UniProtKB/TrEMBL annotation:
Organism listed in the record: Brevundimonas staleyi
Cited Pfam families: SoPB_HTH
Domain ParB-like N-terminal, chain residue ranges per copy: 55-156
Name used for this protein in its record: ParB/RepB/Spo0J family partition protein
Signal peptide start and end residues: none
Amino acid sequence: MSSKNAGFAAGLAGALDDAAPRPDAPTRLPIGALAQRSNRLAELASGSVVSRATELVDPARCRIWSEHNRDYDKLNEENCADLIETFKAAGRQEIEAIVRRVQGDPDIDFEVICGARRHWTVTWLRAHNYAEFRYLVEIRDLTDEEAFRISDLENRARRDLSDVERARDYLRALARHYGGSQKAMAERMKASEAWLSRYLDLARLPAALLDAFPNPHELKIGHVAPLKALLKPEERAARVLACAADLAKSRGEGSALSPQDVIRRLAASADAPKKSGSPKKSGSAGAKLITASSGAPLLRVDAKGRKELSLTLLLGGGGSRADAEAAIGALLDAHWPASPNAETA
């Protein structure tokens, strides 16, 4: 080996060492293949380039990570149509999925951390006359907590991942990776506790309540506040859940209800119907929930006798101040009409 080649080989080995210093600028520019290899070596040594292992693999040798936030069973030709057409047009998958190696399973080589839709799409294409397609993956060595955060960062801005899917993912991760500490989880996710809390509240809504919605995946975190307000106290929650069960049973009769329509019906069922006749002398004469057009609870009105009302502002119900002012105005008009002797304009 010539002295020049021996020197280059020694430099290559040294650059792959963790302790290798950044090479000084050469006094003259090398040429040809040696120039490209030397420049690449300098970039790797300086940390400006991160080298990761990518492979084209058989999707059948991959499984979806158990904590993946995508509901894989809900994927189909319709909601993956964009990827199917993109892959066909390009003749390949161009953005790699993120996987980690699986040990001890003779049938599986990789676990998919990010890229369930890409996995489903390549699998579908291979089964529909595109057998040459393979699954492009980037292989990483990740802990479960790191895998959760990477998956979340990739999917947080995606519109095709529902708030319900994301919320359930966060609730699972809270217990598995953060010991139930919402503060620790928010810090690791670089998010506010208030933002995270809204997703966790959505995930904690009773399954019986979600059954009232034709497609729970249409629910947004903005729907959480009005729904939570309907679940307290217990007797109100019982009426709301009974209404939810009725809505679930009647599904398919007529056109599907929007989330706002379902919330309005649940809100209307929240309070017990008024009894006919005179109210009891002791206790309330009945309560009434006033909601905005969106279904968000605004006011609770409790009648105490014939000449007294107790008004509760439901500040966390999700309604606007303008909605509340309009509701109060309508309440005054109904219970405190203008005096017949009042001057008119």
